[in-house]
Each structure stands twice: as C-alpha cells, then as structure tokens.
Amino acid sequence: MSSPNPSEAEVVKVRGAVKRYDGVPVLDGLDVTVHDGETFGILGVNGAGKTTLMESIVGGAAARFG
After folding, report:
1. C-beta separation of 17 from 56 below 8 A
2. 10-residue block means of pLDDT along the chain (66 residues)?
3. What is the pTM of this model?
4. Which end of the chain has fewer CB atoms < 10 Å from its terminal CB, N or C?
C-alpha cells in the first residue's frame, strides 16, 4: 500500500479489535486504518478472521473491544 497523504480523511479506523469464538481469538488487538482514495485488500488462510474483520467493520459481528 502507498503511504497516505496526511490531509486525506480516514474512512475506516479500527483500533485494538478483539473477537473470540468459544474462547479462541480470531482478532486480537487488530489495528486498521484506510484513508480516502486508498485501495486495500485482506489476505489470509482459511479461518484467519478475514470475514470476521469485515463483518465487524460493517456492523455484522460486533468486536468485543476496539
């Protein structure tokens, strides 16, 4: 990813997200910032928490903290 211009607005900001299923951490202290105009992707193996992260951002699965 390219470095954001400090004047660009943050359109997504997640700090310290934590999500567990049956005590197993899926997201553990995750920080994500996306600025206006940036393109980003989420990569990971099956079960890494990609869908959980996106659902947390859009409100489908609330993170416990963050």
Report:
1. yes
2. 68 90 90 92 91 84 59
3. 0.66
4. N
